[in-house]
Specification:
It is a single chain. It is globular and about 45 Å long. It is mainly alpha-helical and 128 residues long. The longest helix has 24 residues. The mean pLDDT is 90. The protein has one domain.
């Protein structure tokens, strides 16, 4: 039992470090990856989705009956946006949903680079 707990703890650390690297590649603070709920909201932003989608993904399971389904759908949309932002395909989205730890490590430690969509490029140069 203790060995299983140790393996789980090591795997959890690897996943946290992978999320930190993904956040860094996208230009966000790495520390946001270790704050619960905030990390999902920032991940939604990285994926090009609004922050409220991250909040729904976190709190929808509290809704009786349909909450888990709603959360799953939102999570798939966030993962699809994440894979597209890193230049990956829909098959990679399936990997992010079914084996998240492995595919987050591929994004984090591989050569994939995060890119802004065309409508956001140069947006920071516009006067407010």
């Amino acid at each position: 039992m203790a060995r299983l707990a140790l393996v789980f703890f090591i795997w959890l650390l690897v996943c946290i470090v992978a999320c930190m690297r993904i956040f860094k590649k996208a230009g966000h603070s790495q520390l946001m990856a270790i704050i619960p709920i905030v990390n999902i909201c920032v991940l939604a932003q990285i994926a090009g989705k609004p922050v409220w989608m991250g909040l729904i993904a976190c709190f929808a399971p509290l809704i009786p009956f349909a909450g888990g389904f709603i959360s799953l759908v939102i999570w798939v949309l966030i993962m699809h946006g994440l894979s597209l932002r890193f230049g990956k395909s829909g098959a990679f989205t399936a990997g992010l949903v079914l084996l998240p730890g492995v595919f987050h490590c591929i994004l984090a430690f591989g050569d994939a680079q995060w890119s802004k969509p065309e409508q956001e490029v140069g947006k920071e140069l516009e006067p407010v």
